[in-house]
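Below is a filled-in request sheet from our internal design queue. Each sheet records the structural input a requester submitted and the sequence that came back. We keep these sheets so that new team members can see what a complete request looks like end to end.

REQUESTER: design group, bay 2
PRIORITY: normal
MODE: inverse folding
CHAIN LENGTH: 255
BACKBONE (tokenized):
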């Protein structure tokens, strides 16, 4: 399965700008079995990209085409939203009413049509070493732990084929943690798109983007991988169905 994004315009500035001043993004392709790291300067472009790719932008400037396994294509937003999961977008948690970790897990498991009662949710957390954090607010979790937990919960949904992470580096911590998880999920056949800052991309081994003082900061592909092996330390934490279905979801190596 493949997503192609065309006609998207993004801004790297902190303040809002007119669309005429925004920078066109080069056509973006994301296939199942791939991990793509998009990088850019601070600004709303990362969120706009993630919302558009996942079919959740209220006023998208671009078009996302989904190519199914049988070669059929569609631009249906409903279909796109079923096969993509947007993980922890900026602004998702606002105000003081932040849910507890246990409540987040229960709601996500229920959405995935899996057992979501208190016992099942606690067991899910215990398998990932987070049982003692179940009564904490979600925003109290260490950044990479929060990103990892929410990504794994999104992967619980059996119809999801693409995972989209928007600025996971904003929570701090070692980005190698969530990038290793992204590679594990890519190895199992998910398509994983991560939008982050250039400083983070450089920490993960990407080459810096060419400096253009006359250009509006935008987003560019920093790394594209088709992982041949899982990242360290995550296979025991993955959803059972992901491991069971992995052989049928893997794509042949790129030619």
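RETURNED SEQUENCE:
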């Amino acid at each position: 399965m493949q997503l192609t994004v065309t006609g998207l315009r993004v801004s790297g500035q902190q303040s809002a700008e007119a669309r005429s001043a925004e920078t066109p993004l080069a056509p973006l392709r994301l296939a199942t079995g791939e991990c793509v790291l998009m990088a850019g300067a601070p600004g709303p472009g990362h969120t706009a990209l993630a919302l558009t790719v996942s079919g959740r932008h209220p006023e998208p400037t671009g078009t996302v085409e989904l190519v199914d396994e049988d070669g059929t294509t569609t631009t249906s937003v409903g279909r796109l939203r079923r096969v993509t999961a947007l993980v922890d977008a900026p602004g998702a948690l606002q105000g003081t009413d932040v849910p507890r970790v246990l409540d987040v897990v229960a709601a996500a498991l229920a959405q995935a049509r899996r057992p979501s009662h208190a016992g099942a949710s606690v067991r899910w957390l215990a398998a990932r070493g987070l049982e003692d954090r179940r009564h904490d607010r979600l925003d109290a979790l260490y950044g990479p732990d929060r990103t990892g937990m929410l990504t794994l919960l999104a992967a619980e949904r059996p119809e999801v084929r693409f995972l989209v992470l928007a600025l996971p580096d904003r929570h701090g911590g070692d980005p190698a943690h969530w990038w290793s998880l992204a590679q594990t999920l890519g190895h199992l056949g998910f398509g994983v798109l991560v939008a982050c800052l250039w400083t983070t991309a450089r920490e993960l081994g990407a080459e810096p983007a060419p400096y253009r003082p006359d250009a509006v900061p935008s987003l560019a592909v920093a790394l594209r991988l088709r992982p041949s092996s899982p990242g360290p330390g995550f296979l025991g934490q993955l959803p059972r169905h992901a491991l069971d279905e992995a052989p049928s979801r893997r794509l042949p190596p790129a030619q």
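SHEET NOTES:
- The helical segments are 45-53, 77-83, 101-111, 118-126, 143-155, 175-187, 198-203, 240-249.
- Confidence is low (pLDDT under 50) at residues 13-20, 247-255.
FILED BY: M.R.
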